[in-house]
Design a protein that fits this description.
The protein is an alpha+beta fold. It has four domains: 2-59, no CATH class; 83-130, no CATH class; 135-218, GMP Synthetase, Chain A, domain 3 (2-Layer Sandwich), CATH 3.30.300; 222-286, Ribosomal Protein S8, Chain: A, domain 1, CATH 3.30.1370.50. 54% of the residues lie in helices and 19% in strands. It contains ten helices and nine strands. It has a three-stranded antiparallel β-sheet with strand order 1-3-2. Strand 4 (161-167) and strand 5 (171-178) form a beta hairpin. Helix 6 (132-156) packs across helix 8 and helix 9 (220-242) packs across helix 10 (253-264). The longest helix is centred in the middle third of the chain and has 25 residues, at 132-156. It starts with a strand and ends with a strand. Mean pLDDT is 76; it is low at 65-89 and 96-133.
C-alpha cells in the first residue's frame, strides 16, 4: 500500500491510479487526510490517500492464509536430509496438509467470520468508490464557505442581505434576500453575474471543478429563464431562416443548459458549447 498526495483528495486518487496503472474499479482507496488550505500561506497541507491494487491485496492475503495454515512442526527440520529425502518429505507434507484440511470441519464461527470478511470487503469497496458521507460533508463545507465569501462581498457593497443555502450532491444554490434586490442584480443582471463568476471561481480554486453554483435574488433567475427561453426560440428561428450559425454571449452553466434543452425541442436546429469558463458560450446551428 502506497501513500499519494495531491492538492485535493480527487487529485491524490488520480495520481495514485496513474502511477499504479489501474482503474478506480481495481483499486482499494482510503482517505488518510484531506487538504488544508491554511491561512496566508501558512499551515497549508496536501491531501493524502492510500491506493492499493485489489488483485495484489487479494493475492497477498491468500499467501498469508497459506502460511498460517501450515503447522509449525512441518516447517521445522532438525536433521539434514538428502534431495530425494527432501522430495519425499515434501510430498508427505502436502498429503498430510490436504488430509488435515479435508478432515477438519468448518465451524459456524468460521463461516460467520468468512461472511463478515466478504461483507466488510464489499462495504469498504462501496465506501471507497462512492463515499457518499464524505461527499455530503464536503459539499456542506463548500456551501458554507462560498456563502460566507459572497456575504462579505455584499457587505462591502454596503448592503444588508441574508443568504439561504441549499445543495444537492454537486450543485449549490444561494438565495439572496435583500431590501435592495436591484443593486445586487445590476443592469441586465451584470452584478449578479459577476457574483456568480466569483463564487464559481472560489469553488474551483478551493474545492473541485465538479461543483457548480447558482445565485438568485428573489425570483430573478426564474424571470431570467423565461427571457432566455424566449430569446433562444427567436435565435433558432433566425438560424432556420438564414442557414447561418449564431454564437450567443457567454453565460453560466445553468443558462447554457436552459438553451440546450430549449433547442432540443425545436426541429431543424441543434446547439453545442465552445470556449472555457467564464467565457464559455452556446452556438446554435442548422441541422443537416
Amino acid at each position: 500500500m502506497v501513500l499519494f498526495t495531491g492538492k485535493t483528495v480527487e487529485e491524490a486518487i488520480e495520481e495514485g491510479l496513474r502511477q499504479l496503472g489501474i482503474s478506480r474499479m481495481q483499486a482499494h482507496i482510503r482517505v488518510i487526510s484531506r487538504e488544508k488550505k491554511g491561512f496566508l500561506g501558512f499551515g497549508k497541507k496536501p491531501a493524502q490517500v492510500e491506493v492499493e491494487n485489489i488483485d495484489e491485496k487479494t493475492a497477498h492475503q491468500a499467501d498469508q492464509k497459506a502460511v498460517r495454515g501450515v503447522p509449525d512442526h512441518i516447517n521445522q527440520q532438525n536433521e539434514p536430509v538428502s534431495s530425494k529425502e527432501e522430495d519425499a518429505v515434501e510430498l508427505s507434507k502436502q498429503g498430510k496438509i490436504q488430509a488435515e484440511q479435508a478432515e477438519t470441519p468448518v465451524t459456524e464461527t468460521e463461516k460467520v467470520s468468512a461472511a463478515d470478511q466478504a461483507n466488510d470487503s464489499f462495504e469498504d469497496f462501496v465506501a471507497s468508490e462512492f463515499n457518499q458521507t464524505d461527499d455530503v460533508e464536503a459539499i456542506e463545507e463548500a456551501s458554507k464557505e462560498v456563502a460566507d465569501y459572497i456575504q462579505k462581498i455584499i457587505y462591502e457593497m454596503d448592503l444588508e442581505a441574508s443568504i439561504d443555502i441549499s445543495h444537492n450532491r454537486r450543485h449549490i444554490n444561494l438565495q439572496i434576500e435583500t431590501q435592495e434586490p436591484g443593486r445586487v442584480i445590476g443592469y441586465h443582471g451584470k452584478v449578479l453575474k459577476s457574483l456568480q463568476l466569483l463564487a464559481q471561481n472560489f469553488l474551483h480554486d478551493r474545492y473541485t471543478k465538479h461543483y457548480s453554483i447558482t445565485l438568485n435574488v428573489h425570483d430573478y433567475m426564474e424571470h431570467r429563464a423565461e427571457i432566455l427561453i424566449d430569446f433562444t426560440k427567436k435565435t433558432a428561428q433566425r438560424v432556420l431562416e438564414s442557414g447561418q450559425s449564431y454564437e450567443m454571449d457567454p453565460m453560466s452553466n445553468i443558462e447554457r443548459k436552459i438553451v440546450h434543452k430549449t433547442i432540443a425541442t425545436i426541429d431543424g436546429v441543434e446547439s453545442y458549447s465552445e470556449g472555457d469558463d467564464p467565457n464559455r458560450y452556446v452556438v446554435v446551428v442548422a441541422r443537416d
